[in-house]
C-alpha cells in the first residue's frame, strides 16, 4: 500500500487515539470516578457526540481507520484481556456458564426467527438481527452475512438495532446493579452480563463499570458465546443449503467465519496461568489493554449516528426490542434458576 493510500486510514485511527487520550483524562476526574464511569464509557460517549456532530464535516476517507478500531483494535484488546485472567478463574465459573450461554443463544435465534415471521419481516433481516442479539452483536451479523447471503443494507439494519440495545444495556446494567434493583450476587451479575449483552465491547464496558469481580466472569461468559458463533454458522449453513436444495436452487460453497480472536484470548489466559511474566510487565500490558479497549469503545460510539438508527425502520427495531426484553428478563431468571439448581 502506498504512503498516500495509507495516510487516510491513519487519520481515522489518530482521531480515535486523540479521543481515547481525552477519555482517559476525563475518566480521572473525581466526579467521573464517583459515577463509576471508566475510560471505556467516557470514550463511547465522546464517540457518539462526534458521530452526531463533527463526523459529517470530516473526510469520509477517515472512516476505514475508525472501523479498524472497532474490529482489529477491539479484538487485540480482548486477546490481551486474557492477561487479567487465569484458567483457575475460568474453572471457578463452572458449568453454569456454558449451559446458560447455550440456552440464550439457541432460544434467542429461534425466538427471533419466529417473531420475524409474525411481524412479516424479511427473513434475512430477522435472522441477522436474531444472530446479532444472541451471540456478539455486529461481529456476529457480519460473520453470518456471507452465510445468509443477504443484501448489504440488511446487515446494516441488523447492526444498527443491536448496537442501540447493547449500548443502552452498557449504562443500564451498572446503574441497576449499583442501585440494588437486581437481586443478584457478584458472580450471578457477571453471568447475567456476559450472557445477555450484545457486543463484546458492551460487556467490557459494563463489566469495568461494576468492578473486576464482575468484569472477569462476564468476559469469560461472553467469550464462550462468541465461540458459539462457529457452530451456529455451520448449522445455519446446512439448514439454508437444504432449503435452497428443496427450492431447486443451486448453492455455492459457504465460507464459515471462525472468531479466531476468541481462541487467542484463551491461549493468552493459558500463558498467563503459568505466571512466567513479571508482575510489572503484566501491569503494563493491562494498562495498554485498557487504552486499546477505550479506543474500540470510542470508535463504536463514532459509528452510532442517529441517522443509522432511523434507517433501521420500525419492524427490525421492534424485533430487537422484543429480543432485548427476553435477554433481560429471561436471562435474569435463567441465571437465578440455573445457579440455584447447580449450587
TrEMBL record:
Compartment(s): Cell membrane
Membrane spanning stretches: 36-52, 97-119, 126-144, 156-177, 219-240, 260-278, 314-335
InterPro entries: UPF0324_pro (IPR018383), UPF0324_YeiH-like (IPR004630)
PROSITE patterns reported in the protein's UniProt record: PROKAR_LIPOPROTEIN (PS51257)
Keywords, comma-separated and alphabetical: Cell membrane, Membrane, Transmembrane, Transmembrane helix
Pfam families on file: Cons_hypoth698
Tagged with keyword Cytoplasm: no
S-adenosyl-L-methionine in keyword set: no
Membrane topology: Multi-pass membrane protein
Family: Belongs to the UPF0324 family.
Alphabetical list of PANTHER family matching this protein: INNER MEMBRANE PROTEIN YEIH-RELATED, UPF0324 INNER MEMBRANE PROTEIN YEIH
NCBIfam families attached to this UniProt entry: YeiH family putative sulfate export transporter
Protein name (Swiss-Prot/TrEMBL): Membrane protein
Species of the source: Akkermansia biwaensis
Amino acid at each position: 500500500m502506498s504512503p498516500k493510500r495509507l495516510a487516510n486510514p491513519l487519520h481515522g485511527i489518530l482521531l480515535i487515539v486523540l479521543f481515547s487520550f481525552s477519555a482517559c483524562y476525563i475518566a480521572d476526574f473525581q466526579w467521573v470516578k464517583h459515577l463509576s464511569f471508566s475510560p471505556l464509557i467516557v470514550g463511547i460517549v465522546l464517540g457518539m457526540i462526534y458521530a452526531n456532530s463533527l463526523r459529517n464535516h470530516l473526510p469520509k476517507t477517515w472512516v476505514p481507520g475508525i472501523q479498524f478500531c472497532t474490529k482489529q483494535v477491539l479484538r487485540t484488546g480482548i486477546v490481551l484481556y486474557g492477561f487479567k485472567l487465569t484458567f483457575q478463574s475460568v474453572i471457578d465459573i463452572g458449568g453454569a456458564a456454558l449451559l446458560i450461554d447455550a440456552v440464550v443463544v439457541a432460544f434467542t435465534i429461534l425466538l427471533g426467527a419466529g417473531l420475524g415471521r409474525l411481524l412479516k419481516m424479511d427473513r434475512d433481516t430477522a435472522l441477522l438481527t436474531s444472530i446479532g442479539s444472541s451471540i456478539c452483536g455486529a461481529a456476529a451479523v457480519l460473520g453470518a452475512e456471507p452465510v445468509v447471503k443477504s443484501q448489504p443494507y440488511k446487515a446494516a439494519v441488523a447492526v444498527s438495532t443491536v448496537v442501540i440495545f447493547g449500548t443502552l444495556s452498557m449504562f443500564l446494567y451498572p446503574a441497576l446493579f449499583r442501585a440494588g434493583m437486581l437481586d443478584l450476587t457478584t458472580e450471578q451479575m457477571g453471568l447475567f452480563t456476559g450472557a445477555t449483552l450484545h457486543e463484546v465491547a458492551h460487556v467490557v464496558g459494563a463489566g469495568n463499570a461494576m468492578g473486576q469481580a464482575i468484569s472477569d466472569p462476564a468476559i469469560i461468559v461472553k467469550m464462550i458465546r462468541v465461540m458459539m458463533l462457529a457452530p451456529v454458522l455451520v448449522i445455519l449453513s446446512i439448514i439454508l443449503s437444504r432449503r435452497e436444495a428443496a427450492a431447486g436452487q443451486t448453492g455455492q460453497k459457504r465460507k464459515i467465519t471462525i472468531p479466531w480472536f476468541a481462541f487467542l484470548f484463551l491461549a493468552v489466559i493459558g500463558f498467563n496461568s503459568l505466571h512466567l511474566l513479571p508482575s510489572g510487565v503484566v501491569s503494563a500490558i493491562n494498562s495498554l489493554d485498557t487504552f486499546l479497549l477505550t479506543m474500540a469503545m470510542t470508535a463504536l460510539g463514532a459509528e452510532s449516528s442517529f441517522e443509522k438508527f432511523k434507517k433501521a425502520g420500525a419492524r427490525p427495531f421492534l424485533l430487537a426490542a422484543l429480543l432485548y426484553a427476553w435477554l433481560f428478563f429471561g436471562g435474569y431468571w435463567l441465571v437465578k434458576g440455573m445457579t440455584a439448581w447447580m449450587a
